[in-house]
Amino acid sequence: MQYILNGHSLVLDPALCNGCGRCEEVCPHAVFSIVNRKALIARRGNCMECGACRMNCPPGAIQVSSGVGCAAAIIAGMRNKNAGCADACNCG
Amino acid sequence: MSSCGCGSLTQVQPAAPATLSTRITWRDVLGGWRVRWGIGRMSYRIAPGLYRIGQPDSKSPVLVTANYKLTVDAVRRELTGLNVWLLVLDTNGVNVWCAAGKGTFGSAELVRRVEATGLARVVEHRRLVLPQLGAVGVAAHEVKRATGFSVSYGPVRARDIPAYLAAGMRATPEMRRVSFGWKERMVLAPMELVPAWKPALGILAALVALDLVRHRELTPHLAADIVRFFGAILTGGVLVPLLLPWLPSRAFSVKGAVAGALWAAAAAWWLPTGAVEAAGAALLIMAITSYMALNFTGTTTFTTNAGARLEVRRSLAPILVAAGVGAILRVAAAFV
Ligand code: SF4
Ligand code: SF4
After folding, report:
1. What is the pLDDT of residues B62-73, one digit of tens each?
2. Ligand 1 neighbours (beta carbon < 6 A)
3. How far away is chain A from the Cα of B140, in angstroms, using its nearest Cα?
4. All domains of chain B, ordered by start, with CATH?
């Protein structure tokens, strides 16, 4: 399934990529493929912007603005600036 | 340890890791049921530290997980018959996915826990297996630099762990994908219904008041309102998650409104009323189901933050207007 704006903010800098394959390993939606020892954004529309790839890319070749895709947290944030996911979701 | 309600676990000392059984007792099942339905606290934890599963030795793999008891239960049940170490991080009793998003299941806690448990003296190898969804909070290269342990991300689902270990710690592409099948959606449905109880009582009180003010007694109108209203809550909380892939539009609020319109039509056919009352009830039903569907975004595995922001901005005003106009029409219908 896809949502609105999936993969909108995902940016890969091929010049920095060393082809280690971590992004392909950590992505839960198989967004990356490694082609000719370089990462490639093969399925951008599947990206939920979780940030796992950016977090685990050693040379910092990936940028993505991540955050929870949780409307309840966003509404709570509008009502109260200090409210986080924990206050709105059943996230714990 | 008392906070987890299962007296057989003890706080782990670095030298003597406690053994975790792979058997799930009725207490575990009951506890899990209570957490999902929001009875008692949401967080349900076990002590962080190093645990034995089976009879691990210095060559056995080390699996890392969060100290949310339901996660630990899921992992240990799947590990029946294996000999592994389980390194439990302190995530304040929150599951891996949410804790990684918050950073509590993160590089810093992992490094701290590896050191606190003296893991380097317990095992000869230098490899940690993390659940794949933990990658949102953990930077593998930073953990390697700080502890010397390299991080392998294992499968997303606990039930794939034995196959992953048997294959020499190699995950198939299938194991790496998050799925969101109807079973997963149904397990999460109660999470949507629980927060609905308080507003539901308020609306119920308003319906009773309306009937009393208008008719000076409780009438069949109230019964019809209650059926329509609880039907709306079940539509938003159960039907929308169940039918999610088949409801039109990518926007959850639209999916919810469509499901609400279906229920409103069914209710109008089943409980015929005047046109104004039916229109007011339909708008109220759609506002409720649309709002509940919007809140389901947080529970899914494919919504993005930017998308959810956009959807909240676009849908909140129409939902509030529908609720307001619907309430006015419903009240007006009682008096004309
Ligand atoms: S993790 Fe970074 S360096 Fe490694 S393949 Fe992906 S983009 Fe390239
Ligand atoms: S942000 Fe998450 S879903 Fe998107 S490409 Fe990176 S790992 Fe995959």
Report:
1. 999 999 888 888
2. A 12, 17-23, 39, 57, 59, 61-62
3. 6
4. 2-176 (3.40.50.11600), 182-333 (no CATH)
For residue A45, give the ligand nearest its CA: 2
CA dist B52 → A91, B21, B97, B193, B273 (Å)? 28, 9, 23, 37, 65
Best to test chain A binding among B242, B304, B315 (most A CBs inside 10 Å): B304
CATH number of the CATH domain containing A46: 3.30.70.20
**Searching chain A, which residue's CA lies closest to the CA of residue B194?**
A90
Q: Residue A27: inside a domain, yes or no?
A: yes
Structural domain count of chain A: 1
pLDDT digits (tens, 9 = 90+) for A20-48: 999 999 998 999 999 999 999 999 988 98
End-to-end CA distance of chain B: 64
Nearest to A25 among B91, B141, B153 (CB): B153
Is residue A43 included in any domain, yes or no?
yes
* Residue B6, pLDDT score: 32
In a domain? residue A88: no
Q: Is A40 part of a structural domain of the chain?
A: yes
CA distance B302 to B39: 28
CA B134/CA B64 separation, integer angstroms: 9
Q: How many Å is the maximal CA-CA distance in chain B?
A: 82
Candidates A3, A70, A92; nearest CB to B250: A3
Segments forming the whole domain that contains residue A60? 11-66
| Ligand index nearest the alpha carbon of residue A6 | 2
Tell me the pLDDT tens digit for each residue of B221-253: 888 889 999 999 999 988 998 899 899 998 999
CB contact under 8 A, B305 and A6: no
Rounded CA-CA distance B207/B21 in Å is 52
